[in-house]
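Q: I'm writing a short explainer about Phosphogluconate dehydratase for a general audience and would like to include a description of its predicted shape. Could you first generate the structure from this sequence?
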Amino acid sequence: MHKTIEEVTRRVIRRSAQERAAYLLRIRQAADQGPARNALSCSNLAHGMAACGQKTKEQLAGNVTPNIGIVSAYNDMLSAHQPFADYPDKIRAAAAACGATAQFAGGVPAMCDGVTQGQDGMDLSLFSRDVIALSTAVALSHNMFDAAVCLGICDKIVPGLLIGALSFGHLPVVFIPAGPMTTGSSNKEKAQVREDYAAGRVGRDELLAAESAAYHGPGTCTFYGTANSNQMLMEFMGLQLPGGSFVNPGSAMRDRLTDEAVRVILGLTHLGDQYTPIGEIIDEKAVINGIIGLLATGGSTNHTIHLVAIAAAAGIRIDWDDIAELSSVVPLLARVYPNGMADVNQFHAAGGLGFVIRELLDAGLLHDEVRTILGTGLRRLCQEPCTDNGELAWRDGETASLDPDILRSVAEPFDSEGGLRVVQGDIGRAIVKVSAVDPAYQNIRAPARVFPSQEAFTAAFNDGELECDFVAVLPAQGPRATGMPELHKLTPYLGVLQSRGFKVALLTDGRMSGASGKVLAAIQVTPEAVAGGLIGRIQDGDMIEIDSHNGALKVANAESLAARQQPHYDLTSSHNGMGRELFVTFRNNVSGAEAGASIFAGSGAGSQMLQR
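A: Of course. Here's the predicted structure. Afterward I'll give you a sentence or two in plain language.
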């Protein structure tokens, strides 16, 4: 193992010792009670199987047949989740073929950031993760299940499902994806039309046509944002079948993989000899592997929040320093939009995740000695699915990239580091992602222009006020302020200004997430403005320095900044309408970004999470 990875892993294990031990004790006590239905009274059980057929009732009453609880994020307006419509029937059939049963335990909400981007609904986006975790816990709380299947793809949904599943850490759990949509128009064409629209060169009709050509059918959006980063994580952390993340919906292979996932999880229940609960799969090394996968593939900055919250749910404490230190030694092996022009289908065809895992293992950059749904060892995840006489089979994955413009080896990476860095200083701490930023733009020293909202920024752009070097500062966008919305509405405008030769950057306590692109952005600033963070005291003209190379986040007049009165933000309009009034308890109790932006940070396994 690489020395730095060993050191970070040991540090995380030491830091987490007390909470991890408490978590493992709790789930082992739950496991010692045996299959869940033993704890139910006859009345409880009768209610739980009243709608089942007679054969299923006999199986459920016998306490010797495993029963799978299905938790699904299906809805038919999200392209990524629409294919899940018939998955419960497929899972029940696959379970029956193995002599087992499956019940639909419950649904969880699934919202699409692509739909709510720049809209009021985006203020609920991050909070939806914890709602999904709560919904998952409610679904499994009937205690009828010996294992669980989680059906989810997109941004907050997989982290929410995983946090909820970890609260039932004594259960074996498998994640089953639905796959990405087939390739539409190129990412280069899409990005160009967006910039043309921002610059006024094309109208709304042309923009909508371009967007519809890119997002055109069932499946995950094909760029490498949070949704597809989620799928990578589930493979790297051992909860998904190898090579299954990016198999398109509706294909025969997709159905074979679903059937196989059911067969695999049935073999891991307490009723068999290979009992493997999710709480023991997701340990410190699995979390480190997930971070390394994120860095090596240029994944979403959202996971600098989600991975902290996921780890805490398993009694594990990580922070941004851990991620930044790992990033300094993990090479960037993939160029997938927005870090390149390829989409995930092209990445998969070039060798995909199996190639990346093999390269990292061979270089001593991943922990192999971990548990997965397939048994001990991560190297099994280097394989890829194929067919043999119409049946699912496995073969070794590619040992050389089939397209070096998309995927490269550790020996010849796109970059020697992963590109996620921490910057800190007078203003606080923030995350920057530089893997898609030209080196000429990775540092900036320029005056601040402060905006209360994305709309105020775009109005200034349209009025021609931003033809200069500046750092756009958007405070009061953090979790306690507005739920920490993504600020992608700014991206095309900042891109246009940068293309015109101006040095521009973004500084915010909000998010940019998986589509963070070519403009330098110091995001997720903590402490946030409404929690007293100094980002809230910045005024127009203050000289801001963001130095991603040296990890610096400075303001030239730090002394006067500290002496200024903290502004009062009237956020009433952001706290009402579109359901936002229902989330006041979330806003009042959410932790900071580096502590996972979670309402669970003050209880359970995450009670001692870092608070900066």
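A: For your explainer, you could say: The two ends are 31 Å apart (CA to CA).
Q: Perfect, that's easy to follow.
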